[in-house]
Amino acid sequence: MRALTFHGKHDVRVETVPDPEIVNPRDAIIEVTATAICGSDLHLYDGVIPGVHRGDILGHEFMGRVVETGRDSPLKKGQRVVVPFTIACGKCFHCARQQYSACDNSNPAETQDSSELLYGHALSGLFGYSHLTGGYPGGQAQYVRVPFSDVGPIVIPDGLSDEEVLFLSDILPTGWMAADNCDIEEGDTVAVWGCGPVGLFAVQSALLMGAHQVIAIDHYPHRLELARALGAKVIDYRHSHVLEALREMTGGLGPDAVIDAVGMESHGLAPDAVLDAAKQTFGFGADRGHALREAILACRKGGRVSVPGVYGGFLDKFPLGAFMEKGLQWRTGQTHVQKYSQDLLRRIGEGEIDTTFLISHRLPLEEAATGYANFHENKNEWTKVVLTP
C-alpha cells in the first residue's frame, strides 16, 4: 500500500510499504477514505517530539471503511467508521473511568519503558505519533490496522459526509474537552490562545457551553476572522498587548478560564519566546511555552487553566509562583475521545456543530508532502488539509 512516512525534520515521503494485517482478535483493518494533517503532526515534522523513527507512518486523524475484522471485533465489513487517535482497551482502571487517553494496556510492553522513564508512567497508545506512545502506524495511508476495534471506532450513519465527521477523530473532541475542562459557568469569559483547528473548535465549544464571552488570540488575520465568524472577540498579539487588552475586555478582572491551544512551539517576539526558540534549536529544553506563561498571568485569581496544546519535554521559566498565589486550577491531557464521540456525532447530525468551515485544502495522499510544507509555512491560508488516499 501507499503511506506517508517520516524521514527526518521537514522530510516526509509517500512510499510503498507492507499492508497491515490482523494480529489480535479485537483488531480491524480500515481502508482509509479521508485523513487530515493535524497541528500535532507538525511537531513531528519539526522534529521536536522524541521517539519518532525514520520510516514511521504518520497520521492520527482518519476514517474509512471496514475491510477485515478479527473474530472478536463487533464491526462489520463495509461499515464507515471514524477512528479516535487515542487507542484504548476499554477495560483497564483508567478506561473504566472514561480516562481513555490514559489506558494502561494499549502501549505495548516493549515500548513502555522509555515513556515510563521520561514521564513516571507508561503512556497510552496513539496512532502515527511516537514510539513513546506505542509506535503504531498512522492513518495517512491506504489502510491501517485498528487495535481494540470494539472500543474506539465510531460507526457513521448514512447521510453524513466524510468531511462532516472526520474531525471526530481528534480535533473536535480535543477542542470540546478543552472547553469542558474550563467548567464554564454563566457569565464566564474564556480566552483561547491559538486559532489553529483545536483553538477554533475550543472557541466554538466554549460558546456552545454557555460562555458569555470568548476571546481568541493569534496573529494570522484569516484565522482570527474564522474565530470572529464563530462569535469570538479577537486579539492580534502583533498589534495589541495581550495582558492589557484582556484586562480591558474583562473589567480589570481577567478571564475566568484560559485555554492554551498552542503548545510546545509558541511563536512571537517576546523575550522569553525568543530565548525558548534559541534553546529548542540547539537542543536545550524541548518546549517553547510563551503562550502558556501568558495565559497563566492573564487568568483571574481562582480561575481555570486548560491545556490541550501538546508539550513533550520540559519547560523552564514556568510561572509557578503566579499559579500558586492566584489559586489557579489546571486540567490537561491527551483527549479522552471515546468519552465524547457519540454526543458530538449527535450534535453534528442535528446541525448544531459545523466541522467543515476550517478546511482550506484538499489533496490526494500522493501530495501529502506539499500539504505538510504549506500547512507549516503558510498558516494564514492553509488552515486545514484533508488528504484522500
From TrEMBL:
Residue ranges occupied by any Alcohol dehydrogenase-like N-terminal domain in the UniProt entry: 25-153
Xref: InterPro entries: ADH-like_C, ADH-like_N, ADH_Zn_CS, GroES-like_sf, NAD(P)-bd_dom_sf
Pfam families xrefs: ADH_N (PF08240), ADH_zinc_N (PF00107)
Cofactor(s) needed by this chain: Zn(2+)
Location of the Alcohol dehydrogenase-like C-terminal domain: 197-265
CDD domains: FDH_like_1 (cd08283)
GO molecular function terms noted in the UniProt entry: oxidoreductase activity; zinc ion binding
Keywords: Metal-binding, Oxidoreductase, Zinc
The keyword DNA repair belongs to this UniProt entry's keyword annotation: no
Family statement: Belongs to the zinc-containing alcohol dehydrogenase family.
PANTHER family given in the database record: DEHYDROGENASE, ZINC-CONTAINING, PUTATIVE (AFU_ORTHOLOGUE AFUA_2G02810)-RELATED, ZINC-TYPE ALCOHOL DEHYDROGENASE-LIKE
Protein name: Alcohol dehydrogenase GroES domain protein
